[in-house]
Design a protein that fits this description.
Helix content: 10-25%
Shape: globular
Number of helices: 4
Radius of gyration: 18 Å
Largest sheet: 6 strands, mixed
Oligomer: single chain
Number of strands: 12
Distance between the termini: 42 Å
Strand content: 25-35%
Order of helices and strands: EEHEEHEEEHHEEEEE
Length: about 210
């Protein structure tokens, strides 16, 4: 990576697959520019990764229930949101200099070709499907999306068969990315819920849960 000029003047070492700075041993904070430079030079070799708070994280393999939940969510949201919106599946959202998450689902305004130059910087609704990553999705990711001003963030929790809905971002110095949500509600299979951007729509939790 030094050949790419990423660590000029920085004392770093690779420990257990993580680039850490010395002294102190904290993870090196990559920018989106550096992240794209690595990708352009085939550093990731086909691995699914995303940039979260300056740290490059490798995505876990997707198990069948996770895949089914993504498919159900895509079908449901495409039905709810008509012309003028589209649903992105595991595609990047630009949340600033050091974060570019790839949520399982994101509803964004406009047509796909409107994003030929830049990724969306926001979304009307972000959805993560969660099993082994439930702690991360309900804490670090929730804080990240709150910091990006995402008003409506849903976690399809496969561990409890519930849909967790986070709303109303607010500053919180104790949260991982300096923000969290005021509101958290949980919906079961027989409960009805509506996206903030489509308040007249009604869907069942079972529409999203495998």
């Amino acid at each position: 990576m030094r050949e790419l000029g990423l660590f000029a003047g920085r004392d770093v070492e690779l420990v257990a697959g993580i680039v850490r700075e010395n002294p102190g041993g904290g993870p090196f904070v990559f920018t989106r520019t550096e992240y794209y430079a690595l990708d352009a030079n085939h550093f990731f070799r086909g691995q699914r990764v995303q940039l979260i708070g300056g740290v490059i994280l490798q995505e876990s393999p997707m198990n069948p229930p996770h895949a089914v939940a993504v498919t159900l969510g895509l079908s449901t949201l495409q039905t709810l949101f008509g012309a003028g919106h589209h649903v992105r599946v595991q595609l990047p959202i630009d949340l600033g200099l050091i974060s570019e998450p790839q949520p399982d689902l994101a509803v964004v305004a406009g047509l796909p070709r409107e994003y030929l130059t830049d990724h969306p910087k926001t979304a009307l609704l972000v959805v993560e499907v969660s099993d082994t990553t439930i702690q991360e999705d309900t804490h670090e990711k929730a804080s990240l999306y709150a910091s990006g001003g995402i008003e409506d963030y849903w976690v399809i929790d496969l561990t409890t068969s519930r849909v967790l809905v986070f709303r109303s971002p607010r500053p919180d110095p104790k949260a991982r990315f300096g923000h969290d949500h005021v509101s958290l509600a949980a919906y079961g299979r027989e409960d009805r819920l509506s996206p903030l951007a489509a308040p007249d729509a009604r869907i069942l939790g079972s529409d999203l849960l495998p």
